Each structure stands twice: as structure tokens, then as C-alpha cells.
């Protein structure tokens, strides 16, 4: 009885935390099309200023990949009023930190400052947008930086080309078929004029959202935003081409060789819908059910019980236009690919033919509620979520309501979605193998 009371108390506490995490915000547009979102949080004397641009790897040309990620670096080079090499010095000298990241769909820049430096942060982001200096010395410098990043994080990293190996086989016409970091020969071949044209096309106020989150005075923040951003001219609206991939109707195989590995990885991959769809959320739950933690179905069966695999996992690589559903495994010893895939498929078939148990369903609900609470637990997380939900999901209030969507997913839906997307005739099987030794003549 005592345990039951404690469990009920914990459940009530979690529910209370989740409801208390409701995020309040104000949003409006400047005349130049820049969308502004303000979120006050007085729990600590810090403020986050971030700008998310609706430009990612999918906005590149097939022979000029890597541009969006390149600009993630290039736009720290300097501006008309911030000399080259001074950006990071200014930030650290004022007690701040900053960073940026790029995906296939967007690029995100942010600064975290003590709250008394909000004007500085707003000015710096307006400078990045209004007065970037894009010259040959900056391009050449960042070209070397990106090449080194690719060597460290991709080319010399075990399984570093896994996403590339999958994407180039799963997509035939959509720009998702190349990676965010791109190909170095494309950056080498690009002219300065091409970089300047890319900046002019995509880094415009009407292709971005500015988020200010943390401790600040709203009226003062609005005044500074208007002062520094309103003079930036509106750009030509970005016209985006829509790409449709033909459905996968027959299982196919592919192989990739990696000189940095000794143990092969076996991957099955299915094409899935946009992250904005309800089905994408159901696939998230299926991933958690199959491989989240040591008590998950795949881990317990293949790693713990049968000792077939060193590692096994499933995840929904979800994006704005399409997604990819991965199931991967590293075999133990001489375990065959056929034995591993057979056991993985058995668990998927169970999902397709039986309802998951009530206890497993409740465990999923608890996990996703906990994830929701954690995602909004920091002001940095809230700033990123506000930008993402506005720019990519077209529904900023998902920051408060997406958890209700997950809660409404039923066991019957989990079964139906597994049948809809995880069928053998809709997948690729990738053998990600150690590179064969080349024999000398």
C-alpha cells in the first residue's frame, strides 16, 4: 500500500510539473517580414538571443553541396562593424557564449549573455544579417575549417559515413540525398560570387525567426529589436521546389565500406513521412518501444538474452519533408546477418499483429511526458523549441500542445503505423562493412 501511495504521489508530481511547464510567449512581425518571439523567464539573470534561418542542406544545388553548413561558419567571420576575428572575443569579453548548428532544413545561431547584455546580442545578430563581410579570405579560411571538421567527425570517425550511405540510397530526387556537411570538392569549386548569392537569397529577415528568451524588459527588448532589425530590407521571398520521391515497393540492398571499423553494421531503413505528421510521432513511440533502454524489446532479446548483438537500436530520423526509420545492429562474434535480421523482424511483426501491453504503453507515455518536461527545462531549450515549432512546423504553440498529441496516440495506432511503414517490401538493407584490404599487384 505504501508503494502504491508513493507511485501515485510521483505520478501526480510529474503531472504537476508538466502542466507547470506551460510556456508563455509573445510573437509579432516586423515590416520586413522578420518574425519575433519573446519569452520571459526571470529564474536566472541570463538571456538567449537566437535567429533561425529557413535554409539547410536541402536548399543547395547537387554540385554545390555543403553551402548551408559552410555559412554556419562563414557568418562568424565578421561584419561591417565587427572586425574579422573579433566576434568570439566580444562575446567572451561580455560574459557570454555562442554557437550555431545546421540541419537539412534550417540553420540556427544563438548567444547566451548575462541579461544586462541583451542590446549587445540583438545588435550582433542584426549585424550578422545586415552587414556580413563575405570575402575571399573568409571563404578560404572557413574552407580549411570545414575540411578539418569533415576529417575529424566524418571521414576518420568509425561509422562516420553511415548517414551518407543511407541517404544517397534512400533518396533519388530529393535534396535529402546528400549530407549536411557536403562534398569538399563542391566548396573548392565555388566562386566568391556564388557564396555571396547564396547569402543574398536565404539570409533575409523574411526567411528567419528571432527569439529572445530569459530575463529582460519586454518594452526595452522591442525597442532594441526595432532599432537594429527594422532597417534591414526585406528580401525576395524564397521559392521552394517540391520534390516527390516514388514509394519504395521492393526491398533492395546496398553496401558501404568504412576503413575505420572492424565490426560490420547491419541497417534496415524505411522511408517515413514529414516530422509534422501524426504518423511521425507514432514512429517516435515505436522507436522508444523497440530500443530505448536496456529493458526495450530489441536490446533485451538480441543483446541480453541471445547475445547476438553488441548493440542494437531503432530511431526515426525525422525531417521537414520526409523521414527515415533506421534499425541498426552490430553483430556479436560470428553471428550472421540473417540471424540478426530475423530476430529484429520478429519483433516488428509482433508490433504489426498484436497490441503492445498496457504496461508497455503506460511506460511509453511516461517517457514522452518526461522528455517533454526536460525539453522545456532550460531557457536555451525553450528558445530553440520556439524557433523550431514556428519555422519548421508552422505551429509555434506545439511547444505546449505536442505532448497532448503524444498522449492521444493509441495502442491501435502503434499497430497500424507499424504496418503502414515498416513492411519488408518498403525498405533498404545496408551492409556497412569494414573496408577490404587492397591486394598489391
From TrEMBL:
Which residues does the UniProt record annotate as the domain Peptidase M16 C-terminal? 190-367
Q: State one Pfam family annotation.
A: Peptidase_M16_C
Q: Which domain of life is it from?
A: Bacteria
Q: Which residues form the signal peptide?
A: 1-20
State the InterPro entries in the record: Metalloenz_LuxS/M16, Pept_M16_N, Peptidase_M16, Peptidase_M16_C
PANTHER family, sorted = NARDILYSIN (PTHR43690), NON-CATALYTIC MEMBER OF PEPTIDASE SUBFAMILY M16B-RELATED (PTHR43690:SF35)
According to the entry, every stretch annotated as the Peptidase M16 N-terminal domain falls at 36-179
Protein name, please? Peptidase M16
Q: Which UniProt keywords apply?
A: Hydrolase, Metalloprotease, Protease, Signal, Zinc
Question: What protein family is recorded?
Answer: Belongs to the peptidase M16 family.
Amino acid at each position: 500500500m505504501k508503494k502504491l501511495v508513493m507511485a501515485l504521489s510521483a505520478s501526480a508530481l510529474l503531472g504537476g510539473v508538466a502542466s507547470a511547464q506551460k510556456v508563455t510567449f509573445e510573437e509579432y512581425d516586423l515590416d520586413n517580414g522578420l518574425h519575433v518571439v519573446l519569452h520571459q523567464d526571470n529564474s536566472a539573470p541570463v538571456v538567449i538571443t537566437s535567429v533561425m534561418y529557413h535554409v539547410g542542406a536541402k536548399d543547395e544545388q547537387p554540385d554545390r553541396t555543403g553551402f548551408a553548413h559552410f555559412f554556419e561558419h562563414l557568418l562568424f567571420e565578421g561584419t561591417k562593424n565587427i572586425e574579422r576575428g573579433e566576434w568570439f572575443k566580444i562575446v567572451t569579453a561580455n560574459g557570454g557564449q555562442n554557437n550555431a548548428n545546421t540541419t537539412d532544413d534550417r540553420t540556427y545561431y544563438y548567444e547566451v549573455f548575462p541579461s544586462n547584455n541583451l542590446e549587445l546580442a540583438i545588435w550582433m545578430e542584426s549585424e550578422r544579417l545586415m552587414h556580413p563581410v563575405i570575402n575571399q579570405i573568409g571563404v578560404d579560411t572557413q574552407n580549411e575549417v570545414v575540411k578539418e571538421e569533415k576529417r575529424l567527425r566524418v571521414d576518420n570517425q568509425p561509422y562516420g559515413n553511415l548517414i551518407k550511405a543511407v541517404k544517397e540510397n534512400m533518396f533519388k530526387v530529393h535534396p535529402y540525398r546528400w549530407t549536411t556537411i557536403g562534398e569538399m570538392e563542391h566548396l573548392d569549386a565555388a566562386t566568391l560570387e556564388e557564396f555571396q548569392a547564396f547569402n543574398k537569397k536565404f539570409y533575409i529577415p523574411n526567411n528567419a525567426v528571432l527569439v529572445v528568451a530569459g530575463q529582460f524588459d519586454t518594452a526595452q527588448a522591442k525597442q532594441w529589436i526595432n532599432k537594429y532589425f527594422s532597417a534591414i530590407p526585406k528580401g525576395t521571398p524564397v521559392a521552394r521546389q517540391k520534390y516527390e520521391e516514388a514509394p519504395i515497393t521492393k526491398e533492395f540492398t546496398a553496401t558501404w565500406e568504412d576503413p575505420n571499423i572492424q565490426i560490420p553494421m547491419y541497417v534496415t531503413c524505411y522511408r517515413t513521412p514529414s516530422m509534422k505528421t501524426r504518423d511521425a510521432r507514432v514512429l517516435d513511440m515505436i522507436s522508444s518501444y523497440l530500443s530505448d533502454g536496456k529493458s526495450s524489446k530489441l536490446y533485451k532479446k538480441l543483446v541480453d538474452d541471445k547475445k547476438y548483438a553488441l548493440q542494437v537500436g531503432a530511431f526515426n530520423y525525422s525531417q521537414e519533408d520526409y523521414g527515415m526509420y533506421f534499425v541498426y545492429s552490430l553483430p556479436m562474434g560470428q553471428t550472421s546477418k540473417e540471424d540478426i535480421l530475423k530476430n529484429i523482424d520478429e519483433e516488428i511483426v509482433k508490433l504489426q499483429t498484436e497490441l503492445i501491453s498496457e504496461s508497455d504503453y503506460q511506460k511509453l507515455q511516461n517517457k514522452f511526458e518526461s522528455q517533454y518536461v526536460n525539453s522545456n527545462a532550460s531557457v536555451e531549450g525553450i528558445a530553440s523549441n520556439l524557433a523550431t515549432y514556428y519555422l519548421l512546423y508552422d505551429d509555434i504553440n506545439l511547444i505546449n500542445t505536442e505532448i497532448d498529441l503524444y498522449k492521444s496516440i493509441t495502442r491501435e495506432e502503434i499497430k497500424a503505423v507499424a504496418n503502414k511503414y515498416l513492411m519488408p517490401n518498403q525498405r533498404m538493407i545496408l551492409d556497412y562493412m569494414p573496408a577490404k584490404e587492397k591486394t598489391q599487384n
